[in-house]
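can u pls check wat happens w/ glutamine
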Amino acid sequence: MQNQTIAELGAGLRAGEFSSVELTQHFLQRIERLDGELNSLVTVTAEAALAAAEAADRQLETGESSPLMGIPIIQKDIFCTRGVKTSCGSRMLDNFISPYDATVTQRLLQAGAVSLGKANMDEFAMGSSNETSYYGPVKNPWDTSRVPGGSSGGSAAAVAARLAVAATGTDTGGSIRQPAALCGITGLKPTYGRVSRFGMIAFASSLDQAGPMTHSAEDAALLLQTMAGFDEKDSTSANEPVPDYSEGLNDSLQGLRIGLPKEYFGEGLDPAVAASIESAIDVYRELGAEVKEISLPNSGLAVPTYYVVAPAECSSNLSRFDGVRFGYRCDNPRDLEDLYKRSRGEGFGPEVKRRIMIGTYALSAGYYDAYYLKAQKTRHLISDDFKQAFAEVDVIMGPTAPTTAFGLGEKVDDPVTMYLNDIYTIATNLAGLPGMSLPVEPANGLPVGLQIIGDYFAEAKLLNVAHRFQQETDWHKLTPEGFA
Ligand code: GLN
């Protein structure tokens, strides 16, 4: 059962081959048996899951149900979930029980999805390896001595290990696509504004975006269908109609114009990863696509721009965690100042503190023009590169990450090396564009992700392009040993 897609499980549920309660129990047992080693979940909500499954079974009996009815999923612990601990991977929120649901959560539950629990993640979504979590690192199911990527590492590992059929993730600089690549699953970061950020704990508000993490593009389409759409509770949510994402999945790719940015194939890219990407591009050539080299000349500015913009926004967003209203509070504060200082000092981990300090510095009166304002300008240059590229091509392709999964502990003491893991994903967040990662031929015995970047609101096109590849190849069906 665990190897089936949402579409297949949905068909089984509707045909009465098994019930949602049975399906939910099956995944809960897998979690119990297998997650001790992986640490992909912070909270398991078995009781609530079984109650939701029972309700889904009753709804299924009526013959009227949505494609997600009774389907077990996992939510990244960045989404507020009513009555359930919402930790964001931080000691700061270890005691936080959310009083309300994020819009994403609410929409998924309303559609009948069964939430099995909350996925481990880098603290406040800051990281590329899931090693900054207060709850300890997540292990990559393909090789448990390696990282799953981050910050949605728990979501990616759980889906790869078949602990749920799908998961939600968020992507500020690559956190859906990079862990999807390192764990061999399919991940989609939508256009900024496509999915509501209401109730999603903010890291960098102008970059954060939620999306699906699944086994296939077909499943990603089903999840995104429910997640996407205008939300009056999020002032940056786009008031654009949501197309039917499943409808065009099989459209022909004859004549599709693919651009390969030369900057994404240069120094720093593992040759074995490059070879896998090139053979994936060959599949597209066979499907009738036209492939040409393009240039995104300002690509080199993406990582430095991001590491001014994201810390600046995080320093502002995280100022709300002060030990007063919710979250961690230090013991026996002497006075208000001591309460603030020690609550924040003890509640946040080292990577979060590093970002808050960088951001506060970049925003300070004397340095604002030199850093923040400059970063806003380079951000424009990066967006313009994409604008020009999309005048010539329909989609851009390249690697999602420069290497396959690296070892636990390998980069944790060197933040700059860690930051370079997102070198190919960060620019799309700065520009607000949608991006996807899908598994291609493994390299070094580990998963590799092909990244597909589209123009604004081109999610349906990305899903179509990914789905056609998955019709031709079986890389997305590979299962890590011991988790089949
Ligand atoms: N790895 C990047 C960072 O550490 C991106 C994280 C994310 O997308 N949430 O900020």
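The mean pLDDT is 97.
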